[in-house]
Amino acid sequence: RKEVEQDPGPFNVPEGATVAFNCTYSNSASQSFFWYRQDCRKEPKLLMSVYSSGNEDGRFTAQLNRASQYISLLIRDSKLSDSATYLCVVNTGNYQLIWGAGTKLIIKP
Amino acid sequence: EAQVTQNPRYLITVTGKKLTVTCSQNMNHEYMSWYRQDPGLGLRQIYYSMNVEVTDKGDVPEGYKVSRKEKRNFPLILESPSPNQTSLYFCASSFFSGGAGGELFFGEGSRLTVL
């Protein structure tokens, strides 16, 4: 089992719809969590950190479920520009970040 | 402009020909790291550095070397490249160790092909 798993997709979603995807992690001692966004053939960029209480940034909501060991990302009112690959990142401690392989999202007009 | 700069961006080389990929950041970050990205595998850490003269292995260090003689520079060295090192390489830096408390800033990537 991979340490961090994501559904690779692609998720094909019409513009304006709401889409959500999860990321599961295996190390119960994981300390912090992040979502990064990566456009095709470009570098990853931080989208948002994921806090225990959940957090929201505009149309994006991230949640953490420690009991079931997953984090989620919800995108409301999706835009064409949201098309990208979303990478889940887990800090397992010892200065190690474990990256998921990413979920590809395609927003269609 | 705050940035991480990698060079070269694209390189085709042959097996066994030593090469160096440079990485430089202008944000005075202590932490720097090299990753490789392959389809379906996600980012895998090659080496990281907590500060000048402090480096450590990541998950896939075999076949690579690094050095950190200055805070801003963290070159990746492939002494004898092999075809299985064909990949997309990213350098990243952060104020916080491992990006755990903050944001990782990435270079634009270096696409390496070893024939």
Describe the protein's architecture and organization.
Chain A contains no helices and 11 strands. Chain A is mainly β and 109 residues long. In chain A, the strands form 2 sheets. In chain A, strands 2, 4, 5, 9, 10 and 11 form a 6-stranded mixed sheet that branches. The radius of gyration of chain A is 13 Å and the shape is globular. Chain B has 115 residues and is mostly beta strands. In chain B, 0% of the residues lie in helices and 50% in strands. Chain B contains no helices and 11 strands. In chain B, strands 2, 4, 5, 6, 9, 10 and 11 form a 7-stranded mixed sheet that branches. In chain B, a hairpin with a 3-residue loop joins strand 4 and strand 5. The interface between A and B is medium-sized, with 22 and 23 residues.
Helices and strands in order:
The complex is a heterodimer of chains A (109) and B (115).
Chain A: E1 4-6, E2 11-14, E3 19-25, E4 32-38, E5 45-50, E6 55-57, E7 60-65, E8 70-75, E9 84-93, E10 96-99, E11 103-108
Parallel strand pairs in A: 2-11
Antiparallel strand pairs in A: 1-3, 3-8, 4-5, 4-9, 6-7, 7-8, 9-10, 9-11
Chain B: E1 4-7, E2 10-13, E3 19-25, E4 31-38, E5 42-51, E6 54-57, E7 65-66, E8 76-78, E9 87-94, E10 105-106, E11 110-114
Parallel strand pairs in B: 2-11
Antiparallel strand pairs in B: 1-3, 3-8, 4-5, 4-9, 5-6, 7-8, 9-10, 9-11
